[in-house]
Amino acid sequence: MKWVAALLVAVATLAGIVASIVPASGQADKEAAPIVVTKMPPGYRDWKWISVAHEAGNLNSIGATLGGRRGFRALLKGPPAQAHPGARRCP
Fold this sequence. Notes:
By secondary structure, the chain is α+β, with helices and mostly antiparallel strands. It is built from two helices and two strands. The protein has a domain of 34 residues. The radius of gyration is 28 Å and the shape is elongated. The model has no long low-confidence stretch (mean pLDDT 76).
C-alpha cells in the first residue's frame, strides 16, 4: 500500500513539473503580456473632488469623496424626480 501512495506522489510531482515547463497553448511564439499598463484610456484619471468627511472622536480620520465625469454630472443635476421624499442633494 505504501508503494502505491509513493507512486501516486511521484506521478503527481512529475505531472506538475511537466505542466510548468511546457508553454501554454498558443503562447510559444508570442511575447509575454506586460504586467504594467502602458497606455491609459483618455479621462481615466480625471477625478473631481466632491466632498470631504471628518470623523470626530477617537478616529480622527479625514476622507474624500471623488467622482468621475458621470458622478459629478449627477451631483450637479441633483436627485431624480422620482426619488423618495427624504432624498436630498449632497453638499
